[in-house]
Amino acid sequence: MMSELDLINWLRKRLGGVNEQILVGLGDDAAVIKWASDRKLVITTDMMLEGTCFLAEHGMRRIGRKALAINLSDLAAMAAEPIAAVVSLALPRSLDLPAVQELYEGMLALAEEFAMAIIGGDTNSWSGPLAINVAAIGRAGPYPVVRRKGAQPGDWLFVTGPLGGSILGKHLDFIPRVREALRLSHIVSLRAMIDISDGLARDLHHLCQESGCGAIIEEEHIPISSAAYALRDGVSPLEHALSDGEDFELLFAVAPEEGKRLLQTQPLQDLDVILYPIGECIPEGIYIRYRDGHLAHLPPLGYTHRFGN
Ligand SMILES: [Mg+2]
Fold first, then answer.
1. 31 C-alpha to ligand 1 centroid (Å)
2. pLDDT tens, position by position, 158-190
3. From residue 40, how far is each of 45, 118, 130, 177 by CA, in Å?
4. What's the CATH code of the domain at 20?
5. pTM
6. 192 alpha carbon to ligand 1 midpoint, in Å?
7. Whether residue 10 is found in the same domain as residue 99
């Protein structure tokens, strides 16, 4: 069994401040962040449970990375820059110190990539499975905060990458689209945005519902990942792209003239990201147009969060 003191001692050494905004990190009763007054603070939290959100066999490093990455994806969806995170763990008593250190190393590698700090949290042991809660704090850009609402009929809809089949690995190893969102927010007016966690169809419904509009997406323009083809489980690659969760790409709406500009300039190519225009917003109804021209209602296929087993 692990001694909690050993963990705390290790954390104190390992969690150094990586940005000058952190005035007090781990080791006091609370952390303190220096805050520029003219930018909004954006906060999000996600809880991951062993058995429903991940399996121990995924490995502690990847699990830790994912716990932070899903929060960064939510900050990205608001076009916010990550500043700090706090981490709370409910640890099974059987877990030893090296395993918990691995979990943190997964988070820290990602935190360092995005120049953010882990500034505290809480750790408890219990007889249940591993539960990880991360809360992340971000800073909104100098522009209006990007919401799910704000898309208008005529707006073009884009996604930041191929979709479907994330279960083959991307759900753990995805790159949260933070840099992409920040750059986009500087060069166009993002009218509405969401990260695709529940699946394209379902998250498109979320965006349209909040915006009070509809959408038509085009089968021929939906980027389907090679993983969606590799699954060969009787579900078509298109259906995987529409309904699989945890791709963590961004879905966003921009005015048509800005959409044309994004398509022509592909401003995220140096980040290895292609922008795919998948359709447009309309006054109401959510549809998919198939390659043969047939138009069909697109139901909110995809992942729904289940409670319990
Ligand atoms: Mg989200």
1. 25
2. 999 999 999 999 999 999 999 999 999 999 999
3. 17, 20, 33, 20
4. 3.30.1330.10
5. 0.94
6. 12
7. yes
